[in-house]
Write a structure and sequence with these properties.
Strand order of the largest sheet: 1-2
Strand content: 5-15%
Distance between the termini: 25 Å
Number of helices: 4
Bound molecules: zinc ion
Number of strands: 2
Helix content: 40-55%
Radius of gyration: 20 Å
Shape: elongated
Structural class: mainly alpha
Largest sheet: 2 strands, antiparallel
Number of domains: 2
């Protein structure tokens, strides 16, 4: 019989996707690397500990599909960030003191987006690719 603790220890108590430390008796999830809807089973090899954030984003994707999604999301985020910083630079170059508030807001929004998306940059997952 599979126990939650055995699954927890597969990754030394870290989320299999982002590497975040999980509380042993916390609210971490048992993830099916290959989802049940795609024929995944309840065997030990298919079950991995995951934080609520990663498991919520992974949904019905396989581990490999989720890794690809994380990478493409990261690229999109970087592209958006580059555009927004270029916009901030053009505001700065205009040299208008009245635009400083606008510039500050633009930069703070870029920083907030990056902070909220930190997990997206973690692509070195523990689960072997299938
Ligand atoms: Zn995670």
């Amino acid at each position: 019989m599979l126990r939650r603790g055995n699954i927890y220890h597969k990754t030394d108590g870290k989320c299999a996707y982002c590497g975040k430390e999980l509380e042993p008796f916390g609210t971490w999830h048992i993830d099916h690397a290959k989802p049940r809807k795609q024929g995944g089973n309840n065997e030990f090899d298919n079950l991995w500990p995951a934080c609520a954030n990663c498991n919520g984003q992974k949904k019905g994707k396989t581990a490999t599909e989720f890794q690809c999604w994380v990478i493409s999301s990261s690229i999109e985020l970087l592209q958006r960030t580059i555009k927004r910083l270029a916009c901030a630079r053009s505001i700065l170059n205009s040299g208008d003191a009245e635009t400083s508030k606008e510039l500050r807001e633009a930069i703070m929004n870029v920083i907030s987006d990056l902070e909220e998306s930190q997990a997206h940059f973690y692509t070195d997952t523990i689960i072997p690719s299938s």
